[in-house]
Design brief:
Length: 221
């Protein structure tokens, strides 16, 4: 799908039927925060426990990821489809802005996929950047997630959030001593509190692919 030629979707197709999806950027931000949290809520823990009891072959890690996806489905769908596998697939497709194998907000991510911004920790900087560059008040504006994502990708290097991201990802090897000391100081100053490790992120991705490829979630979520 090309955002220049196609209207960003307000619905997704699941098992041949169209379902409304909550397209405002706040929903997808909530989903991203949900997936990055290391600690489960009590509700998620209870659901993961139930899954493990229902399916003795299901490991704890998979059950916990499914508990998060269950909350994600409730965020995105006013009416959750019966085909849970396809519903998750469509949810993730929407979250990734219709792109496959392409990093969302590519210009704002490091090549390694390392987390370099946080919607909670960096909220003020992101808000200020949109207001400064686009004159968009994110506290008041309704904005489709795909539009928000495209605008976020194109934020000027002069915006503070862009500078902060640069501080977090810049390679200081080969720099002069004073320059290296400056960037290392900025790295420490704007360091993110990590909720989820890279190993955890990769593990979740592998579980997701297995679930979407072979696992039948009907009747579970």
């Amino acid at each position: 799908m090309n955002i220049l030629m196609d209207k960003p979707p307000e619905q997704v197709e699941v098992d041949g039927k169209l379902y409304k999806i909550n397209s405002d950027f706040r929903t997808s931000i909530q989903f991203e925060i949900l997936m990055q949290k290391k600690e489960l809520t009590e509700k998620q823990k209870e659901f993961a426990n139930e899954l493990c009891l229902l399916d003795k072959e299901m490991d704890r890690e998979t059950a916990e990821l499914l508990a998060k996806y269950k909350d994600g489905l409730e965020l995105y769908y006013p009416e959750i489809p019966n085909d849970i596998n396809e519903a998750i697939n469509a949810m993730l497709w929407f979250y990734e802005c219709g792109k496959e194998n392409i990093d969302k907000k590519k210009s704002k991510k490091s090549g390694s996929g390392k987390k370099i911004y946080d919607y909670n920790y960096d909220a003020d900087y992101i808000y200020a950047a949109f207001f400064e560059q686009y004159h968009i008040d994110l506290a008041e504006q309704e904005l489709h997630w795909w539009k928000f994502s495209a605008l976020f990708s194109a934020l000027s290097e002069d915006c503070m959030i862009s500078k902060i991201i640069t501080y977090r990802v810049i390679d200081t090897k080969g720099m002069e001593k004073e320059q290296k000391a400056f960037y290392n100081r900025m790295k420490r100053l704007y360091q993110l509190p990590e909720d989820i490790s890279e190993e955890e992120r990769e593990r979740q991705d592998k579980i997701t692919q297995a679930l979407l490829g072979d696992g039948d979630l009907t009747g579970i979520l």
